[in-house]
Amino acid sequence: MNFQMEPSGESGTLTIDEPLTIENVSGLKALFLDAYKQANHLTIRFNSLPDIDLTGLQLFCSAHRTFSEGNKEMTVDFTHADIFKKQAKKIGLIRHRGCDLERSNNCLWRKP
């Protein structure tokens, strides 16, 4: 996993290529906090996502809410991350509407 700021200084990209399970989400949390401090817009891309559990999904939701509350934007490119939506559905997170903080229909759990 790594976080890179764009030359403009306004946005950054977080690239993920390892499992997001309870054993290693603390590293992702640190990257989310760093990205929040530095960027107004964060794009998350997956090189691959071998696994994600409830802890990883909760961290994503928390980060998304934090960005929304701070009037910042977090977008996720789900290419190479089919397991993300599959696990969210299995756990029961997928829904028709997002939370009260949702702007522009960008809730992670919104049904496509």
Description:
The protein is of the alpha/beta class and about 110 residues long. It has a single domain, classed as STAS domain (Transcription Regulator spoIIAA), CATH 3.30.750. Helices cover about 35% and strands about 20% of the residues. The protein has helices at about 25-40, 55-70, 80-90; strands spanning about 1-5, 10-15, 40-45, 75. The protein has a four-stranded mixed β-sheet. Strand 1 and strand 2 (about 10-15) form a beta hairpin. The longest helix is centred in the middle third of the chain and has 16 residues, at about 55-70. The chain is globular. The termini are far apart.
Number of domains: 1
Cα separation of the termini: 27 Å
Spatially, the strands of the biggest sheet line up as: 1-2-3-4
Q: Label the structural class.
A: alpha/beta
Beta-strand percentage?
15-25%
Radius of gyration, whole Å: 13 Å
How much is the average pLDDT? 88
Describe the largest sheet: 4 strands, mixed
Percentage of residues assigned to helices: 25-40%
CATH class descriptor: Alpha Beta
CATH topology value: Transcription Regulator spoIIAA
Number of helices: 3
> What is the CATH superfamily?
STAS domain
Low-confidence stretches: none
Query: What is the molecular shape?
Result: globular
Order of helices and strands: EEHEHEH
Number of strands: 4
